[in-house]
Amino acid sequence: RGQQLTEAIRLNQVGFYPLAPKVAVVVGTVVGKFFITTPDRKTTVFTGQLGPQRNDALAGQQTRIADFSGCKTVGTFVIWIPSLGFSHSFQIRPGVHEGVARASLKGFYYQRTATPLPPTYAGQWSRPLGHPDNQVLVHGSAASAQRPTGTLISAPRGWYDAGDYNKYVVNSGITLGTLLSLYEDFPAYTTQLNVQIPESKNAIPDLLDESLWNLRWLLAMQDPADGGVYHKLTNAKFDGMVMPDQVSTPRYVVQKSTAATLDFAAVMAQASRIFRKFNQPLPGLADSCLQASTKAWEWAQQHPTVYYQQEALNKQFQPAISTGAYGDQDVQDEFVWAAAELYATTKQENYYKAVQLFPGDKTPLPTWNQVRTLAYYTLARFRSELTPLAQKDLGQLRQGLITLADNLTAGATTRAYQTVMGKTAADFNWGSSSNAANQGIALLQAYQLTGDKKYALAALTNLDYLLGRNATGYCFVTGTGAKSPQHPHHRLSEADGVLAPVPGLLVGGPNPGRQDGCQYTSSLPATTYADDVCSYASNEIAINWNAPLVYLAGALEALQVQ
Length: 562
Ligand code: 9MR
Hints:
The chain is an alpha+beta fold. The chain is built from 17 helices and 15 strands. Strand 8 and strand 9 form a beta hairpin. The site of ligand 9MR has 11 residues, from loops. This is Endoglucanase. InterPro entries: 6-hairpin_glycosidase_sf, 6hp_glycosidase-like_sf, Cellulase_Ig-like, Glyco_hydro_9, Glyco_hydro_9_Asp/Glu_AS, Glyco_hydro_9_His_AS, Ig-like_fold, Ig_E-set.
């Protein structure tokens, strides 16, 4: 007994920093001692006692904590409980999450459209060019005097949004905002991050080169005539589970929307200040971005309520569009984000004054349709450079971010899994993994503001969650850890004939909504997860989920929190 692997011990399957807290969770009724041993169980480096029984109502589990924070020995180990078995192996060492930071950034490279992925960079996931998008039709909903229905435009590059092959501006907005913010928050660390992409040898950090792949596409989504931005570039219907070079279904740009235009304005403003420092390798880019941003901002001023409503649109135009809607019907937060980014870049107070920047006392966790707090991250980042008008609000800004972090951490240490993620059932919706990652970012913002280490350590608990310390026992990142998704709802992984899924991609995670109608073994919030290609509601991947993972892993590596 006890000489076999047990799935009952849940832990970060990648590992731990030597001086940081280290926690595993044991599901079931076992009590007594646990041992940290070498994988052959011959050498014990730490002995501990399982904690008191805890109950996890969201998972329907009884658990005990194995706290081995006192174990500071560098090496590869397992947790061994003689009456139960041993855990997946993990490492204790400095820099232990560097691989996750790199893999999750590299994940974006695999999502590139309009370019072949040669074996040099893509290994066994190499593939021919897909979706050139140099002949995209203007859909009836997007027609204008200069670009009537059926006009061909070119909008190549960009990333596939997710498991599907479409490109959505709204979702690209928060994704790029998050990646670019990682660069702004940790320039030294991210500059040396090499992920072996075709641009790795140029003078621009890989994080920015990869972001540029999508940014250049985004620039082409703006109608040069009026500054408005098309909501998405899409097929009429989702493609089948085939490789991208095997399909040639027509591609469309559809209706301009206020949300897309403001997200575009925000990202372009941010990109402009970042690429200003790279004027040498990228002459004119910063100016183009700022010009694009202000033009988009002006369009939104004139069209403040143009929502993307797919069903209504389908009553009016052919062909009907049935791909992802990202149909945000409230753009107050997009106005706040765009205003803040334009202000931070230009320091012109007219942007700061243009909208109510603090419309409520709640500071919402970012997600694709709620971007207000991204504005606060940016204002906080530049807190020492604000003009007097914005400085007046600094107290409120700080308080909002700290309150968000305090609300997130409240009760985490008494929870069954001792993670920030999983406070209530509300954490488990479509793309729940991104909630964990975005909570981590919010906590790191509070850490940056206050210097209080408890926030950084709280953020680390959510990286632990994503990498295996959760009620499903999965490490939610493909190609990472011992037990990770093998069958993501991801066309590239499903259709390529390669057994292993494309690596470095974060799956959506538990989602009791079960909108896909697939088979699940549980309907409880924390465990409604199926590693099944059918399960687009729990096992798809998406760029807006990967970006906060890159941020969380990258920032924790930069900080070497312990
Ligand atoms: O992440 C999106 C989630 O919040 C929505 O509830 C869901 C249904 O509208 O759509 C998700 O986004 C999907 C998008 O619409 C199309 N590409 C795949 C995305 C991830 O599932």
